[in-house]
TrEMBL record:
This is alkaline phosphatase. CDD domains: ALP. InterPro entries: Alkaline_phosphatase (IPR001952), Alkaline_phosphatase_core_sf (IPR017850). It comes from Apiosordaria backusii. Residues 565-593 are annotated as: Disordered. Residues 1-21 form the signal peptide.
Length: 670
């Protein structure tokens, strides 16, 4: 028997302690000792499949110490709709038997002082997980967890309205990773000429009819990463930093957290449509892999590639039969060895399932459009646009996708990969259409490295790709059937504040004098990037700068960065702004050696720039474009796209997967 009076007193102290914590929390979505996952205030698409987990925590020590560290193993949980009769989880979802009780222990630090002292708080847990359920009727659902002799945790869930009509045959979702309005403004200034304040040409993005903004917060922090932000965009459910396709729990296994069905899983299950992903990152990186991945740790690269091909294996879950087009970098997860799942050759695993395999641009462009296609073009991230076109000597590194000690030079860019993916998906999707995600990944990666020119070069490549894709859709006569969305997953605190006279900058000997080369307000002048320079011709077309290295360059920076040197202007080699000594980041004197030192604003362990709070833009054109105006949560991007695709059904729909099962293309509910 649990002592009620003692419980109440300790409970008040425990909840007060957790409420005051910021840097560290026992469990971000669970301020009490009883945890409902998904937690309070979550939204669902009708018919979207998900898992439920309940946890009861009993801390053994620390400010939350409770019940001698013994969790209540006899907890119960109920669910009710719109104030109706509460029913047990098993009864409500028609689960034949209760799941087994699970138990484990985890530890955490209550604050920075506890971490410095190496005194963790230990928590014992009792838990149950209910797998693969769905809510079909719109409305409000109340989930109540009862534990510790009358204590309760309540979560309110909202199931959004039905939307069963498919309004867009196809969706192309472009993601400029880390891209903000400020970066788009800077890219426009680099590549498009203005006369007396009026631009003579514009970005492709500028011509979209609808512009909105999305808020990027994660579920338990206001600064997000690319994993859980991608999950919000693809599932309509926020998650925790590093998690994708799941609500994070506290269990030891990062693969058993409560899953949520993604947009391509639903699209295949309901309509049998084709889907694909293109990225200039390694294909197991967060943004592309979150379309099919379910893990608390984005770093489980090998497992996540296997999930993309074969689906979730440790629990019954929706199958997509793998992507129809899958292009990017990341050979380490495909070459048989320590980086691949179970050491297998995943080039061979994809080939066994009927994929064409391309390892360079030449083979990609000649790949058949009627077969599924895998294209992996280098060992890690693809080299950025500037290094492929302006400084090709930077490609002279061992980066071959076979693992051979030689460079990868026959490289496609985002445009070539995207246009080929459109050809394949249009062919394979047929009357059921397709979903394609195309990511300009190194906008973010180069912003992290404080290499602003390389980041903006990749943003211009994204814009050029969007322009070319619209032309391709017109050519295929499917533009009017295709919703195109261009957005980001998060931002960086970047902006341009003036120009810098590089000639004067270089002539100054002391660091303080160098700062006088920066022109602000009336001294910022005009962009010289669009002015021709004798002897300089890159052959990169009208949508890119004519001169990447003018005398007067953009003076730009970010709001949060480590100690580093700055000299503005383009660097002939990619940036490495810091060097590590004793686990701390210091100025790298080999990077921008003629620049001046800028003191950092981040923890000394941070070697690069970090993400910021900013809302990010959402551009839309095509069917349902009118729904994308305004300011809304990142999860609403999912609901807008899902409704346009007719994915919100009031019954368990598996017609798409059932139809493809007969063609050897996949499985539905199993």
């Amino acid at each position: 028997m649990l002592p009620r009076l003692d419980l109440a007193a300790v409970w008040l102290a425990a909840t007060a302690s957790v409420a005051s914590a910021q840097t560290y929390r026992r469990f971000g979505t669970c301020p009490s000792l009883g945890c409902v996952i998904p937690p309070d205030q979550q939204d669902f698409l009708p018919g979207q499949e998900f898992d439920i987990r309940f946890e009861v925590h009993a801390p053994k020590n620390g400010s939350e110490a409770f019940n001698n560290g013994v969790p209540d193993e006899k907890f119960t949980a109920t669910i009710s709709k719109d104030g109706g009769r509460p029913r047990s989880i098993a009864e409500f979802f028609k689960i034949r038997s209760e799941p087994s009780l699970e138990k484990w222990t985890f530890s955490w630090f209550e604050d920075l002082f506890a971490e410095d002292a190496k005194t963790p708080s230990v928590v014992n847990v009792a838990s149950k997980a209910y797998r693969r359920v769905a809510l079909y009727e719109p409305g409000t659902y109340t989930v109540t967890l009862n534990y510790f002799s009358g204590k309760k945790t309540t979560a309110e869930w909202t199931v959004r309205p039905l939307a069963t009509k498919k309004k867009a045959k196809n969706v192309i979702f472009f993601i400029g990773d880390g891209m903000t309005t400020n970066m788009i403004t800077a890219a426009r200034l680099l590549a498009h000429k203005a006369v007396n304040g009026k631009y003579q040409t514009l970005l492709s993005l500028d011509e979209f009819p609808v512009l909105g903004h999305q808020m990027t917060h994660s579920i338990d922090t206001f600064i997000t990463d690319s994993a859980n932000s991608a999950s919000a965009l693809y599932t309509g459910h926020k998650s925790t930093v590093n998690a994708l396709g799941v609500y994070a729990d506290t269990s030891p296994d990062p693969q058993d957290d409560p899953k949520v069905e993604t947009i391509v899983e639903m699209l295949f299950r309901i309509w049998g449509s084709a889907w694909g992903a293109v990225s200039t990152a390694y294909i197991a990186d967060a943004t592309p892999i979150a379309l099919s991945g379910h893990s608390r740790l984005r770093s489980q690269y090998g497992v996540l590639i296997d999930q993309a091909l074969n689906g979730v294996q440790n629990y019954s879950w929706t199958k997509t039969d793998g992507p129809d087009a899958y292009f990017g970098g990341g050979a380490d997860q495909f070459i048989a060895g320590p980086g691949s799942y179970q050491g297998k050759d995943y080039y061979a695993e994809f080939a066994k399932k009927g994929y064409s395999i391309s390892l360079n641009k030449t083979s990609l462009l000649s790949a058949p459009n009627d077969k599924k296609a895998l294209g992996i073009f280098c060992k890690n991230n693809l080299p950025v646009w500037i290094d492929r076109h302006i400084f090709p000597e930077n490609l002279e590194i061992n980066n071959d996708p076979t693992g051979a000690a030689k460079p990868a030079k026959d490289l496609p860019g985002l445009k070539e990969m995207t246009l080929k993916a459109v050809d394949i998906l249009h062919n394979r999707g047929g009357k059921e259409g397709f979903f394609l995600m195309s990511e300009a990944a190194s906008i973010d990666k180069q912003m992290h490295a404080l290499d602003y020119d390389r980041a903006l070069g990749d943003l211009l490549e994204l814009d050029d790709t969007v322009r070319a894709t619209i032309a391709k859709l017109k050519q295929l006569r499917i533009l009017d059937d295709t919703l195109i969305v261009v957005s980001a997953d998060h931002g960086h605190g970047f902006d341009v504040f003036g120009s810098s006279d590089t000639k004067y900058f270089d002539a100054q000997e002391d660091e303080r004098s160098k700062r006088n080369a920066i022109g602000v307000y009336e001294n910022s002048g005009l962009s010289q990037y669009t002015e021709p320079k004798p002897g300089v011709s890159y052959g990169t077309g009208a949508n890119f700068p004519m001169n990447w290295d003018p005398r007067y360059v953009l003076a730009a920076g970010v709001g949060a960065a480590p100690d580093r040197r700055e000299d503005y202007g383009i660097g002939a080699t990619p940036r490495a702004p810091t060097t590590s000594r004793g686990g701390e980041a210091y100025v790298n004197d080999q990077d921008r050696p003629n620049g001046f030192v800028v003191n950092g604003t981040l923890p000394t362990s941070e070697s690069q720039g970090v993400h910021s709070l900013t809302d990010v833009p959402v551009y839309a054109r095509g069917p349902c474009q009118e729904t994308f105006g305004g300011t809304y949560s990142n999860i609403d991007v999912f609901y807008k796209i899902a409704n346009c695709l007719g994915l919100a059904h009031g019954r368990n729909v598996t017609e798409g997967a059932d139809k493809n099962r007969g063609k050897g293309k996949g499985k539905g509910r199993d």
